[in-house]
Amino acid sequence: xxxxxxxxxxxxxxxxxxxxxxxxxxxxxxxxxxxxxxxxxxxxxxxxxxxxxxxxxxxxxxxxxxxxxxxxxxxxxxxxxxxxxxxxxxxxxxxxxxxxxxxxxxxxxxxxxxxxxxxxxxxxxxxxxxxxxxxxxxxxxxxxxxxxxxxxxxxxxxxxxxxxxxxxxxxxxxxxxxxxxxxxxxxxxxxxxxxxxxxxxxxxxxxxxxxxxxxxxxxxxxxxxxxxxxxxxxxxxxxxxxxxxxxxxxxxxxxxxxxxxxxxxxxxxxxxxxxxxxxxxxxxxxxxxxxxxxxxxxxxxxxxxxxxxxxxxxxxxxxxxxxxxxxxxxxxxxxxxxxxxxxxxxxxxxxxxxxxxxxxxxxxxxxxxxxxxxxxxxxxxxxxxxxxxxxxxxxxxxxxxxxxxxxxxxxxxxxxxxxxxxxxxxxxxxxxxxxxxxxxxxxxxxxxxxxxxxxxxxxxxxxxxxxxxxxxxxxxxxxxxxxxxxxxxxxxxxxxxxxxxxxxxxxxxxxxxxxxxxxxxxxxxxxxxxxxxxxxxxxxxxxxxxxxxxxxxxxxxxxxxxxxxxxxxxxxxxxxxxxxxxxxxxxxxxxxxxxxxxxxxxxxxxxxxxxxxxxxxxxxxxxxxxxxxxxxxxxxxxxxxxxxxxxxxxxxxxxxxxxxxxxxxxxxxxxxxxxxxxxxxxxxxxxxxxxxxxxxxxxxxxxxxxxxxxxxxxxxxxxxxxxxxxxxxxxxxxxxxxxxxxxxxxxxxxxxxxxxxxxxxxxxxxxxxxxxxxxxxxxxxxxxxxxxxxxxxxxxxxxxxxxxxxxx
Length: 808
Hints:
Structural class: mainly beta
CATH topology of the largest domain: Immunoglobulin-like
GO molecular function: copper ion binding; oxidoreductase activity
Protein name: Cupredoxin
Keywords: Metal-binding, Oxidoreductase
Family: Belongs to the multicopper oxidase family.
CATH superfamily of the largest domain: Cupredoxins -  blue copper proteins
Organism: Tribonema minus
Oligomer: single chain
Number of helices: 6
């Protein structure tokens, strides 16, 4: 094959033109395959990777496919280095990398104490291999753009293959590889992410769209410890991705890549200014916000707290993200920071100054926020409330060759919809110290075995940490310099911030001309990008970006997982060029299983037993039991509930003004006004319900459910259904893997199409299984049944459970 010159378009052979990328503009996402169907139901809700678990498999299976897609975008920020200023109405067609045809990739959920097998399929076999030999010593520099692998950023899991190995694991084009992740039983819940991490092609692939959010759901002890105002908050996801066309073209040219291009040519001489995507879309252009109001990124209920999970995938510069009322003089939202880089703060809430409502985001940061936005006119929740703007401003970094855009852009809006529920209480009324697993407990500065190390990087040089020897459970004190321009990321283990002075906070001088003479304002607000208290001693992070040229102090303690611990600059291009090190952690030759927890840290209180709802034990007398009568107890113990995207408006709340169960449970329980039937609604994969039963005599029994699931449209596959029933799961044990003690049955059907009819008609209630029931053996006495909902492609409604003696 001949060389491809500058400006010449290359298409793969056999006429295989990449598809258009699916983004937030496509709420009805079509599936990758019937087994791996992304689940999304609201415009602001990210599509989810569908895990698959066949009968009595002890692991979940899923699939990520890396391939080429076309993406249509508008440049929405000004690049100071660009030769021309882009027309904000000009669209650009980009051919780039993506997972499962989506930008961002599908949202991935995992749970503590479970095993996941994730197959990564490299479908780049039709593209040229590019530069085969790294241009710089020690294997550094852009090369082999079609070879890939996967990194689960921030997870506390093994770095040994087939786990999170980025040193030796490589997936050639046209091949696939299955990773196995054993999530420790004490893994903290939080927001993480995933992206390619093959040395030499990381920057090109990850910075061009191949990345996605990953959520870990914690174990029973953490759930039991969680204070009421912070649990079960409706989740909203915001994935920010910067596409720097000029830098990507440079990387493609250096590596010999022929996949990435824009506007019909590989390397135009004047690339358009970068675009910043929010959940895959450029909803706004420049500082104007009119184009955002009709397509909100996030929807929250007025007067109620909601969680906003933010992931920032940036190329080289840190940013400040702000919330601001769209209407002049409008009321600001109340905002609290809950977690950084997947780890809850030591003390909650940490409220933001409403005059700024600003957070700092490094290149790979995740921040979890609790947001409560005001009611509309009248203050009773019935009138529409004013929208909130999500504003984005890059910060220049000392020593960086990248220059920040002078424009503070509007990424999108938060729509505030009316509510008839009473205003939620202030979080400050319930201060809370989250418990932490042992690997995230405090590291005293006076620890007797504390090792001291200076950590640094130089361009093209791995630095002081390469081949550095560490030991499990031996804490270390590191001093790190210039992390603003070179944010330092540690794999496997987080870093604990030491003392931070005012010079190391996000620099207020990075917006020198914000306030100018003769500006008219009705409120003299402080510099909106001044964040004097953002970095605080005791915060855990996995990516360090502390301001100033001085040294920052962090503490690192390798825990549980011996082997490689990669440390690198998270400017991916810098890491590809050599600013990456591999420390080695020594440990026992026969390490304990990842699921074995020796020390629960400060999560010392085991979950308490649940109690029957209203003390009414389910008596097995042949009658049905309403599904809403699950046990009393906390999330993670008596039930698990996920509210993703806009919370469903319940009839009982809008018409009756009450929570049917009259308890603190957030499980969506509603009533059908047509037949006065109560039911549990919005059941999603990963949830469970627990019931206390009284078995009169030892013997054979039959279990069945009564459910309603709409039949999908003709162009959608069958939703399928997969769930299990477990006997006497220990408190906080959630849903054990099939085959665990107490496993009564595991039902799986990939072809089940639902109870019908298709939407918008209300689905009918049917008995499931259709052939009658599942046969189970029970001993006499009090027991608990845990009904676990595994995998399916719809939410559904559960009306009754039925347990009766087996018919002879």
